[in-house]
Amino acid sequence: MSADNEEHGKFIDEHSGEESTGHEWDGIAELNTPMPRWWLGIMYASIIWSIIYVILMPGIPLLNGYTKGTLGFSDRARVTKAVEKMHAERSVFSQKLIGANLETIQSDPDLLRFAMAQGKSLFGDNCETCHGASGRGFPGYPNLNDDIWLWGGSYADIRQTINYGIRADHDDTRLSLMAAYGRDEIFSRTEIGALTDYVINLSTPSDKPNTLGTTLFAENCTSCHGDLGKGTRENGAPDLTDQDWLYGGRRETIQATIFNGRKGLMPNWNERLSQDQIAALSVYVHSLGGGE
Ligand code: HEC
Ligand code: HEC
Q1: pTM of the predicted model, to two decimals?
Q2: Ligand nearest to the backbone CA of 166
Q3: Domains along the chain?
Q4: Would you say 196 and 210 are in contact if contact means Cβ atoms under 8 Å apart?
Q5: 251: phi then psi, degrees, rounded to nearest 5
Q6: Which atom, in ligand 1's list, is nearest to the CA of 122?
Q7: How far apart are the first and last CA of the chain?
Q8: Measuring CA to CA, how many Å separate 212 from each of 187, 195, 196, 205, 243?
Q9: Angle at Cα 289 formed by Cα 153 and Cα 176, nearest 5°?
Q10: Tell me: the pLDDT tens digits for 170-228?
Q11: How far is the CA of 219 from the centre of ligand 2 (A)?
Q12: 262 lines ligand 2 (CB under 6 A)
């Protein structure tokens, strides 16, 4: 501050050339420096913009609601519309799925993609508890990734299984009826031992003679497991000649199967899932095993 300042008057600052406001505290004076023009310009533009925005768009909260704005824009309405559109598209796909056969589904890439996505997510929610992650299976719960099927691996077979289950509480369920040959005293321990040897021999042949086992198997087991032990799908009876075991191929396990029987139970889903969901699941499961 220059020495010749008046005590309470305005003056021109000699460093900046700005006029003072006339306020001064303990020898410190306030200069009247105006806002830069560019800054003011932006501020006035923002004010005008916010007024226009509040007129056009929803903005000011009121006691019960808010101002709607003249454009009538609403995020909620937009989401509702998008959800409606998705449901409409889905229901078109769902309707198509119910009636379509596998060829039709496979020849429509959008429909196939929809069915696979639906099927995969339904499988995760409903089936993995028993059939394992991505259908790998556990003892007693068939692996759905291979092409070995108890009841058939065609799209129609799979759809039937899922709809009505196996030993489930439904008139059309598949009936799996392996008896408890030991517990129900149909056979003696010796006879069960001979049958066990016979079954082991089917998948890992040896030259040991086993007349008792051969006779008992032919008389009691071939009606379901087939003359050659290769299984029959009408009865859901597994192939006993391969190395793929539903319950296990160890001697004790096979013996336990014949002694106690097996009662694999798969629930029917026709009362819990809709037909388009079951169709989607069938497409998905069919694709897992490579598909018959
Ligand atoms: C409570 C356990 C359980 C659940 C849940 C379950 N399954 Fe099963 N599933 C089984 C059993 C056990 C079998 C084998 C029955 C038998 O021994 O014949 C089976 C068999 C099958 C078969 C026949 C396999 C073949 O080789 O023919 C298919 C297909 C199948 N399940 C699909 C599904 C699908 C899809 C779901 C979900 C919607 C599902 N399962 C849910 C227990 C279950
Ligand atoms: C009424 C039809 C029927 C008859 C008869 C029958 N089975 Fe079975 N068997 C089945 C079915 C169905 C299964 C699968 C059971 C399940 O998954 O619950 C099975 C399963 C088995 C298994 C388990 C296979 C595996 O992969 O783990 C063995 C072993 C077996 N049977 C042996 C026999 C023998 C030995 C006899 C004769 C004494 C016999 N079965 C008679 C229907 C039959």
Answers
A1: 0.78
A2: 1
A3: 37-66 (no CATH), 124-288 (1.10.760.10)
A4: no
A5: -55, -45
A6: 38
A7: 98
A8: 12, 8, 11, 16, 24
A9: 40
A10: 999 999 989 999 999 999 999 999 999 999 999 999 888 999 999 999 999 999 999 99
A11: 14
A12: yes
